């Protein structure tokens, strides 16, 4: 007969672990001899066995004999592996009953049903997601140390005000870029773990961007700039988009993609090192967000070519919704000119203006390029790019 | 609704609703119309059983004794048709602090013993009956410190027992009475740090709840109900959470051989069990 010696250990301090282990070595109905010196063993052994569905054949001072019950085996009857831990263990559609279980875990049958509307691989997955997450986690930077906050920033008042205005504009755009993935995070089935991780880091990235833009805006003065109706109306159409594919498309492919150009522009022409650093670091993060959005949409479009029509319609719908608004507000446009000018002279301002015109052209080229990656023709890409919000994001 | 089996249960905890709502669905899916009525205390439930308001009552051991005696007094017959595997062969223990000098129950003469609710079979009645049998009359030879949490619910709520254990640990009592499983549970959850108490005495074995039915209920209906209860399997994921909540792995046929200690205790303690 199998036996287990608890020594002085009682069931009140973990002795049941040894008994469970011993019982697992015999078949249901098999008997294990339990011996031990704990004074309460004769009281606790039957009490524990009763609760666990095991039968005490005999008990006395010093232990007893326990017949293994069927409950523990019964508990795991019908249990199911939630796919496999690596990406090759993904399933096409994750069952609602897998819930929060780790991918690859053995899930007890009969659990609660979770509501994850984004439960199909084609809706959310990108083969690049694991790599993008790893890259994102490794590329996290500390706002306190990555930015040269103590560098000399001594700009003409008008240029400083322009930087503050641009930062104010960036902040509200980044709040939208934080909230859009955050809204979908809890809708993605946890089976697609790497997608959750990518989106979570994306949210954390935006939180950091909001911090550094705010800090730069307030570096030389106590007040932030202006927030306009047109800018907020444009962002609201983005925040309100309920469909994950359309929201990722509008945010990442169209908006953040455009922002990559904008942030590079700010970094290249920044009048001071702090502005350059916040734009450069944020731009690196945004490029990853664009890469994920593109990767999963390319996959989804391959699987469902009709999606392309819905993406185009979303841009057109957004354009119609915004056509009576002002688009990029004049204050932001002028602030960009002045930021790129760096000085309050006619020559500098003319140069700044030319640079902003060139920027808008680059943004358009970038959008067309990404649209073509999603399978749009040259003509479609040009038309859709031209309909993109004048607010950039 | 005449063919619906109506069962009474006592609402000692909100989970009671979850449990029996789950069973309603489970029985319905198997063709048995089943419904339940909740009572706030066992005496009201036993009255309802006797009055025919319900076909069956999920009774505490004391409620079984009450129902059995009331039925006999009226020339009727009560039966225990079903019980949980965890209702069989329980014991209660008399605990003392590990560092105390008590070595036998007799040493508690003149001392204070903490118990659970006044109507708790496991934490009050049976342990006090055990002290009586050992020659200590509660109230005369030992002082009884009651912890009346939810009287009428026959100690189903663990609060009274936990309070008794705390009274012992904090020195407000010299001994405390709890069911064996709760001594283990309280030791594991930290209410009684391991090694802080020892078992001075253990009662004989007794049975706990049962499903009580009086004669006169359509036998086929009762048989269908009992057969379905007995057929519940722990490997059925639909019913397993309900079994876990109700604290069993499987239903067993009822038996009435395990209530002698309780009957002895209530008689010895002079409890009035008159119903109605």
CATH superfamily of the largest domain in chain B: Periplasmic binding protein-like II
Question: What is the string of SSEs of chain A from the N terminus onward?
Answer: EHEHEEHEEHHHHHHHHHHHH
Q: Which two protein chains have the largest interface (Cβ within 8 Å of the partner's Cβ), and how many residues from each?
A: A-B, 28 and 29 residues
CATH topology term of the largest domain in chain B: D-Maltodextrin-Binding Protein, domain 2
The residue fraction in helices of chain A comes out at 55-70%
Give an overview in words.
The complex is a heterodimer of chains A (393) and B (276). Chain A is of the alpha+beta class and 393 residues long. Helices cover 59% and strands 6% of the residues of chain A. In chain A, the strands form two sheets. A four-stranded mixed sheet of chain A has the order 1-2-4-3, with helices on one face. In chain A, strands 5-6 form a two-stranded antiparallel sheet. Chain B folds into two domains: 146 residues, Periplasmic binding protein-like II (D-Maltodextrin-Binding Protein, domain 2); 111 residues, D-Maltodextrin-Binding Protein, domain 2. In chain B, the strands form two sheets. In chain B, strands 2-1-3-10-4-11 form a six-stranded mixed sheet, sandwiched between helices. The model of chain B has no long low-confidence stretch (mean pLDDT 96). At the A-B interface, helix 2 and helix 3 of A face helix 6 and strand 9 of B.
Descriptive tags:
heterodimer; A: about 400 residues; alpha+beta; Translation Initiation Factor IF3; Ribonucleotide Reductase, subunit A; 3 domains; four-stranded mixed sheet; about 60% helix; B: about 280 residues; alpha/beta; D-Maltodextrin-Binding Protein, domain 2; five-stranded mixed sheet; 9 helices; 11 strands; globular
